[in-house]
UniProtKB/TrEMBL annotation:
Keyword match RNA-binding: no
Domain of life: Bacteria
Protein name (database record): Homoserine dehydrogenase
Annotated Homoserine dehydrogenase catalytic domain residues: 131-310
Similarity comment: family membership: Belongs to the homoserine dehydrogenase family.
Keyword Nucleotide-binding: no
Annotated keywords: Amino-acid biosynthesis, Methionine biosynthesis, Oxidoreductase, Threonine biosynthesis
Pathway membership, UniProt: Amino-acid biosynthesis; L-methionine biosynthesis via de novo pathway; L-homoserine from L-aspartate: step 3/3; Amino-acid biosynthesis; L-threonine biosynthesis; L-threonine from L-aspartate: step 3/5
A GO MF label: homoserine dehydrogenase activity
Classification via PANTHER family: HOMOSERINE DEHYDROGENASE
InterPro entries, per database record: Asp/hSer_DH_NAD-bd, HDH_cat, NAD(P)-bd_dom_sf
Pfam families registered for this protein in UniProt: Homoserine_dh, NAD_binding_3
EC annotation from Swiss-Prot or TrEMBL: 1.1.1.3
């Protein structure tokens, strides 16, 4: 594409990110970009542009030969995959911000690019304004990485920050985040750590050349966090953060998990607050690198979309250079973490300890009640993750994941109705 010619863009979606991207383009006419058509789902909805600027049939954009590229920023993962995959089959250039769709379908989308000659970029899908995808794909394309970890979700980080600042409980902090637009009406994807899990899957393809299955990765959220947990961490000079991590184990295998973690001031993530995200890249030769920026919002994420659009004009494609040397994966079996576990009901806590293979003497008491600490098999946490969530059990890791000598046996009994 000649940068002197106007670039004609078809925009699919006009929510927070779509409007943010539109605003940025409108404020920079020197970029020579023109959003010629905008596809939305709901006719008659009040919008900031006149009705004639919109179409209600996104497929029209896919078939329009006058458009140089497409930008997809809708919140429906299934529809996003249908549109993006159809566009790639036509050999089109596409930028997307849909992390759930990418985490589920990335191998197929990479194959479609190779088969039909299209291009897909998705910097905006991971950590908002932070350029982590391209950094991993290009700058660290041939350097071994010890770990890539960070705070990948601004909504849960905002809630934890406000709980720490105010000494409040989870409910009021979540309500505030929702009122300010930092959390969705249904907060499950963010607070349950499903969103950062999707982002970890995407980064694994660029950091290690591995396509992970999201459902096989342990993700524990903060639905059960309480003021007692925040106070417990503070008493030790620590904060609770939801940390998503990709880690090379001593034998070279790759593992991944997303959990709350107790962090001290020595961690770069300790000072990442509110809706900000932070990423730590631990490279074998370059050493640790730290990136921080706004992880959500129309303009921060719209700026990442713009970066992809300009990169598409220059002909940039992701390399996925590490696929040929991708490590073996070990996600749950044979691994353990040092865990902190709390539930306000002592009976529930004792039962949970049997699931996690912690002895009764692991229980400790502070001014806020009972909690337990000890080494817990990751497989146990993964096997009981739904029950832990439904019962409101809060689990945080202390330190990093590590291998154990032998994989522990684990329970499969899911009859926990009596505890609910």
């Amino acid at each position: 594409m000649n940068e002197n010619n106007p670039l004609r863009i078809g925009l699919i979606g006009f929510g927070c990110v779509g409007q943010g991207f539109y605003d940025i383009v409108a404020q920079q006419p020197g970029l020579n970009l023109t959003i010629t058509c905008i596809a939305v789902k709901t006719p008659g909805k009040a919008r900031s542009l006149p009705a004639h600027r919109f179409t209600y049939h996104a497929d029209e954009l896919l078939a329009d030969p006058e458009l140089d590229l497409l930008v997809e920023v809708i919140d429906d993962a299934a529809e996003a995959f249908r549109l993006v995959s159809a566009a790639l089959r036509r050999g089109r250039r596409v930028a997307t911000a849909n992390k759930a769709m990418l985490a589920r379908h990335l191998p197929e989308l990479v194959q479609l690019q190779a088969e039909f000659g299209g291009t897909l970029l998705y910097e905006a899908a991971v950590c908002g304004s932070i350029p982590v995808v391209r950094t991993l794909d290009q700058y660290f394309s041939h350097e071994p990485l010890r770990a890539v970890s960070g705070i990948f979700n601004g909504s849960s980080n905002y809630v934890l920050t406000r709980m720490s600042e105010e000494g409040s409980d989870y409910g009021p902090a979540l309500a505030e985040a929702q009122a300010l637009g930092f959390a969705e009406t249904d907060p499950t994807l963010d607070m349950g750590a499903f969103d950062p899990r999707s982002k970890a899957v995407i980064l694994a393809a660029h950091a290690y050349g591995v396509f992970l299955e999201a459902d096989e990765i342990l993700n524990l959220g903060i639905e059960g966090v309480s003021a007692a947990d925040i106070a417990h961490a503070a008493a030790q000079g620590q904060k609770i953060k939801v940390v998503a991590g990709l880690y090379r184990l001593p034998d070279g295998r790759l593992t991944a998990l997303v959990t709350p973690q107790l962090l001290g001031p020595e961690s770069s993530l300790y000072t990442v607050e509110r809706e900000f995200n932070g990423v730590v890249i631990d490279a074998a030769f370059a050493g640790p690198q730290f990136l921080q920026g706004r992880g959500a919002g129309g303009h921060p994420t719209g700026s990442a979309v713009l970066a992809d659009v300009l990169a598409l004009r220059r002909g940039l494609r992701y390399q996925y250079a590490k696929q040929a040397t991708a490590p073996a994966v070990q996600l749950t079996h044979g691994l353990e973490i040092d865990a902190y576990v709390r539930h306000p009901d002592a009976g529930v806590l004792r039962e949970v300890l049997t699931w996690l293979e912690l002895p009764a003497e692991a229980v400790q008491t502070d001014v806020h009640g009972s909690f337990a600490t000890g080494a817990v098999p990751v497989q146990q946490l993964w096997a009981w993750r739904k029950e832990l969530r439904s019962l409101g059990v809060f689990v945080a890791r202390q330190g990093e994941v590590r291998p154990v000598a032998a994989t522990a046996t684990f329970q499969t009994n899911e009859a926990v109705a009596a505890l609910a």
